Amino acid sequence: MPGIKIFRMAALRGLGYNNSRGVKDMGQSVLIVNHDIMDKMKAFYIDFLTEKRPPGAVFRATPQDCSITGYRSGKVLFQGKRAEEEAQVWRKWSDDQPARSTKKPVNVEAHDYLPPNNISDLAIVGSDEVGTGDYFGPVVVVAAFVDRNLREKLEHLGIRDSKTLTDAKIKDIAVELSQIVPYSLLTLSNEKYNRLVSKGYTQTKIKAVLHNQALLNVIKKLADRGLAFDGCLVDQFTPPAQYFKAIADRPEKVPSPIYFKTKAESLHYAVASASVIARFAFLKAMDQLSEASGIILPKGAGTGVDQAASELIKVKGESYLSQVAKLHFANTEKAKKRLR
Ligand code: MG
After folding, report:
1. Whole-structure pTM over 0.90, yes or no?
2. Ligand 1 mean position to 331 CA, how many Å?
3. Which of 26, 48, 70, 145 has CA atoms 20 to 30 A from the CA of 274?
4. Which residues surround ligand 1, an ion (CB under 5 A)?
5. How many A from CA of 274 to the centre of ligand 1?
6. C-alpha distance from residue 126 to each of 23, 169, 213, 262, 265 (Å)
C-alpha cells in the first residue's frame, strides 16, 4: 500500500510544532474532501489545532512549516513550505481526483501492530484513558490485566467500554472489578498537565507516556505474583509510529508484543476493565473538584463548560482554572470572552 507509506512518512515529518508565526516560502495546495475525511483530518492534526480560524472553517492546524485549514464546504487549504507534502498525504482521498478517488476512508489503522485474531483468548495487559477530551478534570490512564481465568469472573459483571455504561453502572461495577483484576491507575492532575503543556508536551505525548508507565506497572505486579502474560493492547489514540516516537526518551518501555487498535475495549476484557476503572476514577475526581470549586463542573468541552469556567473566574479568579481545567483548550478564551 504505497499510499499508506507516504501517509506515515509525511505524518512523522509533521510532528514538530510550527514555531514561526507566519509561514514563509508560501506554497499552496487545495483539496476537496467529504465530511468523513474532514473529521479524520481534524483528528489527525489534533496536537496542532489552533483556536484562531477564519470564518467558515471547521479546523485550522499548524504542523511544522505548514498551515492547514478545513472549511465547511469541504475545501482544505494547505499553505507553507510543506503544503504540498501534507496535501499529498490526503490527495488519494480527495474528491477532486475522480480517477484515483476511492470511497475507502483514510486508514490510520493499517499498521504492523494490529492484535491477532485470537486476542480475546490471550493473557493481556490492556490500557485506556479518560479525561483527555474534557476541559475540567484530570487525565486518568489505567492498565489492567485479564487472562482466561479472570475473564470468566468478569463475564457476569457486564463490563463493556465505559462510554456505553451509565455513570451509575460504572460506580456499581468498578469497585468489584478493581478487586478482581490487577491494575495500575495513573491520575495526572490539572496543575501537572498544564505544566507539561507549557513545557511543550503535546496531549499525544502525555497520553503515550502515561500508557507506557501504567502498562509497565502492571507487568511488574504480574512478575511479583508469578503470572504470565502474552502481550499488551493499547486502545489506540495515535498511530503506533507516533506512540513510539512519543515514548522514545522513556527509560523503560514495555516488551513486545504490543498491539494497538481503536475500540480495543470490544476486543479484550483487559482494555474494557481499564476503561471502566479509569472512568470511575475520573468521575470521583470530578465530584471532588466540583465540591472544592463550589459549582458542578460539567464534563466535555461544550458551552456549559464555558459558562462554568467564566463563573469560576468571576468567583475564584482566573488563576484558579489551572487547578481544575486544561488551560490550552479553547474553552479558556471563550470563558474570558463571556466576562468582557
Ligand atoms: Mg480510549
Report:
1. no
2. 22
3. 48
4. 128, 235
5. 9
6. 41, 21, 12, 12, 9
